[in-house]
Write a structure and sequence with these properties.
It contains six helices and no strands. By secondary structure, the protein is an all-alpha fold.
Length: 178
């Protein structure tokens, strides 16, 4: 899953899960009732196409980081204090391994946004990606610049949220702490 681009994964999901097995509709349902079961079911193939590769990559990266953190001395200390293996892993190891993983979330977030441009076209989703491609096709430069600014703003806000969340996952990293 890691090596497949979302475009290829989207085609495979459309062919097998939608066409061959009939689990989902091939394209998204039309309408504005986004909280109905049929609309939710029609959105799932696009969500899977965008997210399965990212989830597989993060699972692999988290496993590697967790294996490294579990061999540190502070984990032995936590176990000798009376914590079970599960408690020590959740309370100490996961938090320390997330410090290394969090910076890569921003780049993954931006890549999911850029992949959504094509996936929205494949699954007929009326989203911002369709507007972006239409503004390029019809040479609407003002709208193209507005949407580019929107994507930049979303990336900057995601970066700020990730930087702020460092203090929650590891209190030693708080800004200005003494």
């Amino acid at each position: 899953m890691i090596s497949l681009p979302s475009i290829v994964l989207g085609l495979l999901i459309q062919y097998f899960a939608c066409y061959k097995w009939g689990w989902f509709p091939i394209i998204m349902d039309s309408g504005y009732d986004y909280f109905s079961w049929s609309m939710f079911k029609s959105m799932l193939p696009a969500v899977f196409a965008l997210c399965l590769g990212s989830i597989a990559g993060y699972a692999r990266f988290t496993r590697a980081e967790l294996a490294e953190v579990l061999t540190n001395d502070f984990m032995l200390l936590a176990r000798t204090k009376g914590l079970t293996r599960g408690q020590a892993t959740i309370r100490h190891a996961m938090r320390n391994s997330m410090v290394v993983i969090f910076p890569s979330i921003l780049s993954e977030f931006i890549s999911v946004l850029s992949g959504s441009l094509i996936i929205e076209s494949m699954f007929s989703i009326p989203g911002v990606g369709r507007l972006y491609l239409d503004s390029i096709t019809y040479q609407d430069y003002d709208f193209f610049m507005l949407l580019s600014g929107f994507y930049c703003l979303v990336g900057l806000v995601a970066g700020i949220v990730i930087d702020i969340s460092y203090g929650f996952i590891d209190p030693r990293i708080r800004m200005g702490a003494k």
